[in-house]
Amino acid sequence: MNRLSRAVLGLFAAPRVNMREDYGKVRRVQQRLAALSGPRYRTAYRQTVAEVAGRLVPVRVFQPRQKRRDDVLLFFHGGGWVTGDIESYTPACATMADLTGCVVASVDYRLAPEHPFPAGLEDCFGVARLLLQEPHRAGIGSAGNVVLVGDSAGANLAAAVSLMLRDQGLRTAGRQILLYPVTHWDHDPLTSPFASVRHHGEDYRLTNTEVQDYFELYVPDPVQRRNPLVAPLMATDLSGQPASLVITAELDLLRDEGEEYGRALRAAGNEVRIHRVESALHGFIALPRFSRSLREAYEVIDDFLDGSLNGGPT
């Protein structure tokens, strides 16, 4: 990528905020933006709840304009386990439903730091377990084929849920789609094993400092951050996982760890497709529908949902 292109993309860099102090402000901004766009999507979804360990976890269910598949995409939103919710992700989920022709169920899991690890994961696992084992209690409707989907921290939660389902001997999802997932615990450019952390951790959409702030809020104990349910790449056994699609963004500091997780899944005997979206930034799943990055990603997702793992490893 030439210097001019890098300079233009640098204009889209995330504001340099201290997430440990300013996460509340970020949430409020997201809520205001969601309130502006929310009314146009209200006919696209219905609100429900799933009972998980005595708690009611909000779930927003999106119907596609034209249903083309029986799959239910169980979606866990991004935001570093600290920000984001079903309101701020409503446009992205409505787009996901329309472009895949699938029902999308978005889980409003608990956020850190008020609810640190494993609270949000327990909510996601609980909803997934209900949908897979007792769909009539999940409040979502007929389950069909369940596909776990998440972006960024949400993809981390999807990967962790898949590991938990296997470890507890429960029915697992048939497929999982991991969009630029967090899979490793170290995002310090001086110590990280991944080149993308050093090359793309300062200039663009997500920064090294921001990711490290998220980890401190989500998992206050540094030792616990190496737990495979926090950093799936640390798992010693990745067998028995769903057929997986890992999509990464070229200019994302999480790129290399996401692709490495895909290779680790494949080495453990799982079916995996890894696809890198060139010139894309972290978070592109929330871009407008005309975005090239978004359109490319959904072409790959469509192929994957149709059963194709072709396209070759990266």
Automatic annotation (TrEMBL):
<dbReference type="InterPro" id="IPR029058">
    <property type="entry name" value="AB_hydrolase_fold"/>
</dbReference>
<protein>
    <submittedName>
        <fullName>Alpha/beta hydrolase</fullName>
    </submittedName>
</protein>
<dbReference type="InterPro" id="IPR013094">
    <property type="entry name" value="AB_hydrolase_3"/>
</dbReference>
<dbReference type="InterPro" id="IPR050300">
    <property type="entry name" value="GDXG_lipolytic_enzyme"/>
</dbReference>
<dbReference type="Pfam" id="PF07859">
    <property type="entry name" value="Abhydrolase_3"/>
</dbReference>
<dbReference type="GO" id="GO:0016787">
    <property type="term" value="F:hydrolase activity"/>
</dbReference>
<keyword id="KW-0378">Hydrolase</keyword>
<feature type="domain" description="Alpha/beta hydrolase fold-3">
    <location>
        <begin position="73"/>
        <end position="285"/>
    </location>
</feature>
